[in-house]
Specification:
Layout (H helix, E strand, L loop, with lengths): L2 H7 L5 E6 L9 H7 L9 E4 L5 E6 L5 E6 L6 H11 L2 E7 L5 H13 L4 E5 L20 H12 L17 E6 L10 H14 L3 E4 L5 H13 L6 E2 L1 E2 L7 H9 L5 H9 L3 H21 L4 E5 L4 H11 L1
Parallel strand pairs: 1-2, 1-11, 2-5, 5-6, 6-7, 7-8, 8-9, 10-11
Antiparallel strand pairs: 3-4
Helix pairs in contact: 5-6, 9-10, 10-11
């Protein structure tokens, strides 16, 4: 079933969903199952599976020189999504990214997903590689998430890269995209950021999942401005608890967002690791309860492998 159909059938009830990381190369599906098994009691209708593009490391050769070598730390998501759907009977939402893929490789992934009856995808540009100063697309790949959305929508209409294909099989993908309540860091201002989101919706995107935020006012303002522009697709808040002291600096730096003074001060004043974790958990619980009371379509939790914390939050909210 499509993600948006779950929203339509919920009759105003706020659903819950989770996002999981693929295991590192050499790992097993048991890592995914260990994360999801304790969360299935909350009956998520769908689970997102992230994708991480290749990175580069420098390997010292016998000559003494270093060679730049590509590695893929986390495998792709197609098999993981199929395994999740088979084990739990829930829909899986694979993340598709521009980085590291040609248009042809993207089309082949979409064909595989369609064969597996995986009807939902989240279309993202993806991050720049660690040592690149900016995002660099693959040769013959997409520069922007907008282009990826257009390719997925083309397949939904039976149009493939090979123009000689006539009466091509029409896929049936529900397309999600990312939203940024505090603005994508590369956008010059919020107006332009919202304009990019509007273009993706006009190109075929069906719903938006936001980046994490820690002050609900940013989410509510984001939704208000989207609606004013005519963006009428469901907008799902993405949530992650702050649980460690180092995150006070790391999360704003990595995700380009603000932490509320009350949250930051409470984290600083907490004297133990457990106390700091409790501060973050309680903050996320209160965020979740307010959003749920306002009737958001779904609360989407970024698990980041910390199943115990996410389960504690879900128990308090659901």
């Amino acid at each position: 079933m499509k993600v948006t159909e779950y929203f339509d059938n919920a009759n105003g009830k706020t659903l819950i969903s989770f996002e999981v990381l693929p295991p590192l190369k050499g790992g097993s599906m048991q890592a995914i199952f260990d994360t999801l098994d304790p969360l299935m009691e909350f009956k998520p209708p769908f689970v997102d599976v992230t994708y991480h593009r290749e990175e580069f490391i420098y390997v010292k050769k016998s000559s003494g020189y270093y060679e730049k070598t590509a590695i893929r730390k986390r495998p792709g998501t197609v098999g993981i999504c199929a395994s999740i759907m088979h084990r739990y009977g829930v829909d899986a939402v694979p993340h598709l990214i521009c980085g590291g893929f040609t248009k042809e490789e993207t089309e082949n992934v979409l064909i595989d997903l369609n064969f597996l009856d995986i009807n939902n995808v989240l279309a993202l540009r993806g991050d720049a590689r660690k040592f690149d100063g900016k995002f660099i697309p693959e040769k013959n790949g997409h520069h922007y998430a907008l282009d990826l959305v257009k390719q997925i929508d083309d397949m939904n209409n039976g149009n493939y890269l090979d123009a000689n294909i006539e009466n091509g099989e029409k896929s049936n993908f529900c397309i999600g995209i990312a939203g940024y309540p505090e603005k994508h860091f590369e956008a010059p201002n919020m107006d332009r950021d919202l304009a990019f989101a509007q273009q993706k919706v006009e190109a075929g995107a069906n719903y938006i999942v936001t980046q994490m935020f820690f002050d609900n006012k940013y989410y509510f303002e984001y939704v208000k401005r989207c609606r004013a522009m005519g963006i009428d697709v469901p907008i799902v808040p993405g949530l992650k608890p702050l649980t460690k002291k180092y995150q006070l600096n790391a999360i704003p730096r990595l995700f380009h967002l603000d932490l509320p003074d009350d949250l930051a001060n409470a984290m600083v004043q907490a004297t133990t690791a457990e106390a700091r974790k409790q501060v973050g958990v309680e903050w996320c619980i209160q965020q979740s309860k307010e959003l749920k009371a306002k009737g958001v379509p779904c609360l989407h939790y970024y698990t980041m492998g910390d199943v115990e914390t996410i389960r504690k939050i879900a128990e308090a909210v659901y």
